């Protein structure tokens, strides 16, 4: 890999996106505590909270009922996913004025690689300011923007002065910005790793950087090298434009290691549903299904199966994932700290469509997926699950 190349990456993160769209559309809600969430009676959760509501300790993924206890005067609104998607498209088209290398992370967040377009539009900082300004003038919404030589630092930068932030991290100032931050700010450092590091007195990124790699290996195994690279602000990962995505995946690190197959399968099913929906949104199909399994000692294995034909049907991906999981289970044991599901071998949905004999079973499953996608878009990802969801 060419490590000499200095990348110019911008990370754009809209501020309290769904809640801000609601406040913009309904001026009477401006300055008020607004919570966009699922129905508290149906065990709904918060999708977004305005900054006025966050002051009361309301945050996303919190049960709606709990959020309303913390902030009883908040205006509770249902999720209007179609509306947010519309605004997201408008923002996306602002990005595309500057670069085709846009990697959307969600409706309200994206990475832009502007390395190749600085000749045309000026420095990355200038492009970042222009993007932020155009978002404000065209959508009346604020974004927090980070500009940096890599994705890790760009994302960190956009978060440093939120909301309405604009932070530039350079090769020159990166260490001075990173050093005082807590180790939890590093990509991939979850609660478990953070606690392990704290137990050795490693609290800040400066502490981490000063720790010999051999000592870190005791704590995080092979992850030590990567952790130290991130602590030095080094990251080689590419901005993957939607069209060029090579894989889509979802993974979860557990607070405590999990060995119960019922729980693991429940988590896996959620991951399959999420990835399948992302494939369909991007009009992609996957040929290979991969499970990533990381044990408590950080040993990581992958298990894959390649299908005869690429698919984005949840049912087919799930059956394959479950089969791969059962096969792994027969040959291995041990509690997992991380489980992940990935779809690779991606091809355009249109590629294999010239089928002479439509498959009625596949058509039925496609209709089911479309219906489920529509419900989830409207009511949130946790609104519906397959009937064969394992018991929790
Ligand atoms: Mg955001």
Helix-strand blueprint:
Layout: E1 9-14, H1 17-25, E2 34-37, E3 46-49, H2 51-54, H3 64-70, E4 75-77, H4 81-95, E5 102-106, E6 109-113, H5 118-121, H6 124-139, E7 143-148, H7 151-160, E8 166-168, H8 174-178, H9 191-199, H10 205-209, H11 213-220, H12 223-231, E9 247-258, H13 261-281, E10 284-295, E11 300-311, H14 314-331, E12 336-348, H15 360-379
Parallel strand pairs: 2-4, 7-8
Antiparallel strand pairs: 1-6, 1-7, 2-3, 5-6, 9-12, 10-11, 10-12
Bound molecules: magnesium ion (MG).
Give a brief rundown of this model.
The protein is α+β, with helices and mostly antiparallel strands.
- Major sheet strand order: 5-6-1-7-8
Chemical compounds bound to the protein:
magnesium ion
SSE series: EHEEHHEHEEHHEHEHHHHHEHEEHEH
Indicate how many domains the architecture comprises. 3
Average predicted confidence as pLDDT: 88
Beta-strand level of the residues, as a percent range? 15-25%
Tally the helices: 15
The main sheet comes to: 5 strands, mixed
Name of the top-level CATH class of the largest domain: Alpha Beta
């Amino acid at each position: 890999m060419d490590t000499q190349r200095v990348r110019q990456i911008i990370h754009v993160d809209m501020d309290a996106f769904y809640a801000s769209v609601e406040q913009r559309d309904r001026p009477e809600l401006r300055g008020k505590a607004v919570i966009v969430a699922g129905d508290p009676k149906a065990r709904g959760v918060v999708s977004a909270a305005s900054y006025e509501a966050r002051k009361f300790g309301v945050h996303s993924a919190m049960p709606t009922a709990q959020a309303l206890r913390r902030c009883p005067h908040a205006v509770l609104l249902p999720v209007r996913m179609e509306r947010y998607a519309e605004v997201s498209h408008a923002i996306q088209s602002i990005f595309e004025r500057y670069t085709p290398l846009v990697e959307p992370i969600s409706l309200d967040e994206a990475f832009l690689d502007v390395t190749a377009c600085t000749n045309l539009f000026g420095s990355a900082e200038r492009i970042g300011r222009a993007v932020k300004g155009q978002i404000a003038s065209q959508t009346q919404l604020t974004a927090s923007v980070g500009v940096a030589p890599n994705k890790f630092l760009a994302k960190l930068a956009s978060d440093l002065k939120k909301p309405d932030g604009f932070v530039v991290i350079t090769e020159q100032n990166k260490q001075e910005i990173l050093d005082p931050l807590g180790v939890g700010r590093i990509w991939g450092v979850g609660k478990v790793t953070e606690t392990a590091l704290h137990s050795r007195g490693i609290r800040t990124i400066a502490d981490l950087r000063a720790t010999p790699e051999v000592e870190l290996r005791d704590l995080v195994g092979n992850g030590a090298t990567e952790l130290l690279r991130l602590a030095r602000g080094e990251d080689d990962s590419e901005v993957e434009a939607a069209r060029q995505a090579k894989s889509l995946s979802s993974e979860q690190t557990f607070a405590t290691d999990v060995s119960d197959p019922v729980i693991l399968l429940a988590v896996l099913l959620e991951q399959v549903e999420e990835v399948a929906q992302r494939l369909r949104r991007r009009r992609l199909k996957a040929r290979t299904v991969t499970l990533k399994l990381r044990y408590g000692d950080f040993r990581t294995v992958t298990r894959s199966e390649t299908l005869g034909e690429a698919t984005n049907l949840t049912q087919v991906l799930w059956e394959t994932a479950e089969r791969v999981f059962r096969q792994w289970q027969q040959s291995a044991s041990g509690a997992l700290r991380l489980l992940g599901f990935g779809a690779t071998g991606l091809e355009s949905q249109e590629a294999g469509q010239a089928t002479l004999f439509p498959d009625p079973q596949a058509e039925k499953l496609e209709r089911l997926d479309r219906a489920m996608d529509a419900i989830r878009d409207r009511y949130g990802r946790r609104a519906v699950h397959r009937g064969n969801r394992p018991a929790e």
